[in-house]
Amino acid sequence: MFNQYRLKRKWGRGVRRASSFVLLRGDDSAVSNMRDFAWHRTKRNPFWLDESNCVDWKFFAKLLILIILLSLTLYLLIYSKFFQINNIGVIGSQKVTTSLIKESVSSVLNYKKYIFCPGNNYFLADSDEIRSVLMEKFPIKSIEVQKQFPNQLLIKLTERIPAVIFDNGYEYSYLDADASVIDALKKVGKDEWIEKTQVTTSTDDNGNEVSDTKVISRIHKPNTGAIYHEFGDYPIVYVENSSSTLSKEAVSVIKVWYDYIAGTNKIKNGYFIINPEIGVLDIKTGGGWYIKTSVKADVNSEISNLEIAMKNKINVNNISYIDLRFPDKMYWK
Predict the structure, then answer these.
(1) Does position 219 have pLDDT exceeding 50, yes or no?
(2) pLDDT confidence of residue 200
(3) Which of residues 239 and 202 earns the better pLDDT score?
(4) How many CA atoms lie within 13 A of 271 on its CB side?
(5) Which CATH class is domain 164-193+220-332?
(6) Are strands 171-175 and 271-275 parallel, antiparallel or unpaired?
(7) What is the DSSP track for 228-292?
(8) Strand 87-91 relative to strand 152-159: parallel, antiparallel, unpaired?
């Protein structure tokens, strides 16, 4: 017998099951729509906790501990005395004293980094900054700055060695082999100039005699004894034109002549006079006579010719000069 009410109940159950299957998402509405075997609506468990909406306090606690540990480690690395540079070693210093170099390095390290961080910290110390400061302050040709863990600094340097003492008529300076100024030494004294004067007389409008002294010529004669004693045994080179400088080639030639004269007992060292514009070089000896040569000449060949001439022909005590500027010829007076 067909029962229409029974059919409606079955049809309603099917629709509700299908909707429950599609909309079931695990939320409260889904739980409230679930049925037991007796087709009764289930009740929510009051002690059930939805973990998807809970704050993970363990994660934040671990993150906080990690931040604290990293901050503490960073603080120790920056502010611990164990990593503060307190030992500075210097290798290769000659004319520049080690104490001056250490003092300059310490002045760089004493500056704060990033406002509040110590500049002498091993990790924050800037080797390039130290190198540039030392290169600018001292006559250094090359320098290497090494940080040695955990608190040491090693400086290896090569100084610019003076090759000549340059005299431009106003002051004395050290020049290196490249003809670059290393350091200014002192001013030229007034007593190192020999002036030749001339006095002229005339009368003024009232008939009074007026005398006027004029400087006709000035000759510069360096005090070689005092200069050698004070600044060392380097060739003294006077440039006639005060605005001119020496070339690297000229410095090399002068050094060869100076070393030759210093190594022989026949000639006493004096000083050099050069005119860079025409390349003429006069070597003033300590015996009162001088050698005329050229910057562009073959130095070794000229020295050999001079040696032969002094052995066979020339008595240097009876001459005023020897001229070596002409190839295969020699003139003296």
Answers:
(1) yes
(2) 79
(3) 239
(4) 20
(5) alpha beta
(6) unpaired
(7) HHHH-S--EEEESSTT----HHHHHHHHHHHHHHHH-SSS---EEEEETTTTEEEEE-TTS-EEE
(8) parallel
pTM, 2 dp = 0.68
**CATH fold for domain 81-159:** Ubiquitin-like (UB roll) (3.10.20)
The beta strand positions in 49-191, using DSSP E, are 87-91, 140-148, 152-159, 164-167, 171-175, 181-187
282 burial level (CB within 10 Å; 0-12, 13-18, 19+): middle
Q: Which residue has the tokens 């030639």?
A: 253
Mean pLDDT lowest among 69-73, 200-204, 261-265, 267-271: 200-204
pLDDT above 60: residue 312:
yes
Q: Which two tokens stand for residue 105?
A: 């390095």
User: Is residue 96 helix, strand or coil?
Assistant: coil
Which pLDDT score, from 0 to 100, does residue 328 have? 75
- One-letter amino acid identity for 23? L
Q: Any residues with CB less than 8 A from the CB of 268 and at least 6 apart, and which?
A: 261, 285, 286, 287
Measured in degrees and rounded to the nearest 5, phi and psi for residue 104 equal: -70, -40
Give the integer Cα–Cα distance in Å for 252 and 183.
Answer: 19
Q: Angle between the 98-109 and 127-137 helix axes, to the nearest 10 degrees?
A: 130
For residue 23, the model assigns a pLDDT of 46
Count Cβ atoms below 10 Å from residue 202 Cβ, excluding itself.
Answer: 9
Enumerate the domain spans of the chain: 81-159, 164-193+220-332
- Quick check: 313 pLDDT over 80? no
> What are the pLDDT digits (tens) for 110-154?
988 888 889 999 999 999 999 999 998 888 889 999 999 999 999
Across-strand partners of 142? 158
